[in-house]
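Morning - alpha-L-arabinofuranose inputs below, output right after.
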Amino acid sequence: MIGRKAAGFLILCLIFVALVVWTRACVMNEKVTKNDSGYNYLIGVSQPNLSEPWRVAMNEEIQQEVSRHSDMRVIFTDAAQSSEQQAKDVKKLVGYGVDLLIISLDDPVALTQTVSSVYENIPVIVLGRGVTGYDYTLYVGTDDEMIGRKAGEFAMETLGELGGKIIEMQGLAGSPTVEERSNGFREAIHNSKLSIVQTMNADWQRDLAEDLLTDWLKDQPEVDLIFAHNEAMALGAYRAVQKLDRNDINIIGIDGVNSENGSLQLVSENKLTGTFTSPPGGKEAIRYAVDILNKEKGIPKKVILRSQKITNQLEGKGEPRVTHSPAPTLQEAQSPIVLGFAQVGTESGWRIANTKSVINAAKEAGVELLYENAEQSQDKQIELIRQFINKKVDVIAFSPKTETGWEEVLKEAKEAGIPVILSDREVNVSDDTLWTAYIGSDFREEGRRAARWLMQEAEEGQSYQFVELQGTAHSAPAVGRMQGFKEVIQTDQNFTLLESLQGDFTKKKGKELMAAALKRHGSAINVVYSHNDDMALGAIEAIEDFGLRPGKDITIISVDATKSALKALSIGKLNFAVECNALLGPQLMKAVKDLSEGKELPMKIITAEGVFTQESAKMALASREY
Ligand code: AHR
């Protein structure tokens, strides 16, 4: 009898255990099984740590934005500051079957391979802190070099004419974010009376920053300012100066998170002298994730968010002062939305394709386009923008001929409350809130890509002499392509620049300049680096007229990768083309529509671009749109 009872009890226990195991399996399954629970998309978010308030804010934004999509779920992981753990977390997320990975890296060097292998199978959004290379779908974050530069200018303002001594508190050594913030800061204070007396790496961590500084400051009476690369370390710096009773030291941070111990609060409590916002980007990451998963066309490669300067100079209500007023957004749009577009000219095949793309995309999007062409005259382009302001269009877009000379007209547009989108080319004005967004390429990166290919193809020990055919003087593509190329090529002694010649992005000018260069240097020229295809095609004709073989006797590299360039590549007259995406129309119309729906635009939307060799051009030629 007792035996039967015990057996019955045992069976009951077994059923109970089985039920528990089954229920748990269901819970686990709920995390990883799609569709049966009414959602289509599972997003994995991998964080390197959650000790920084900035990362907590990032997850909150992600969660909030995901909750707007009933067909989407998200799983978060926290690697507690270990790259090894982060690699394991990513593997686990992929194992759960995530459709898209969002990853914010602490050590990009250690994790680049992990990101690349995930990218082979599913889309990857890199959030906040960047990776090197191109093996990811989209980067969402800030322009760290620009933030560093602004921090440097603020340090100069703060310390005034007498200057002073600075400690730079950096995040993880070797990360691109650290390098860019540091380069920008150093560039800004270069040639001033400010000097960096000590650089420390506190791995983005508050406590490490506090310990390092406490140690160092004990024996160093002369420090005027600490520039901390994030707000956690800025808080650590604040704690150290408090402990040592060194309230005379100014502290500048980065992040501007509005939470307890976030730098917005630290500034308003006067614990920091100022901070630069680095929006976490969680909201934008999910918005773009939706577009990526829905296979929308024209997904950019980089989305750069706007940073603002917050200082401890208090305003009326005791709120920290936002020094820069925001860029204009659209309050109320007409129906249909009216877009005034001032094109720069018709100088190249690229430009003609760009114009077509804008006109067609406007038609498709139902945007009323007022299209005008400035025919390469900056005065005319300014005049056209003024006409758009008078007509009270909803949005103005233009491709600025040059980088400078736009302050006045942009101020007029801002005063009229009209958002301005820079299409294809950027401007260089002291107040970047005079324009609302930039949509186009990263010209400096295009130049770097051209130089990297040349260095990789070069024969060891051989020296090369090159001629550079530059685009329109002082235009953003000419400046960026020149700087990027130079930055890379100057690291190799085997390359010597014979001449940089200023063309206008036209075939005619390219031919003339090349013919003249050949007269001066003859076959001493080994390489031509042309800032666009039209000038390269002109140079090819000049080289043939001179009796040399383009692509063989002289290596030719070009930027744009239009159909004509791909043809020249495929018959061996051109050697390499870096793509500059001309089809900006759809992204421009998307931005205009977003504005009309009251959405805030990112500061910069950088298009995805590739490169073409003679082999890949042959394959791409048939389907090339322009
Ligand atoms: O601004 C983009 C540049 O302008 C293109 O590379 C060039 O061809 C054009 O005219």
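Note: Residues 12-33 have pLDDT under 50 and may be disordered.

O.
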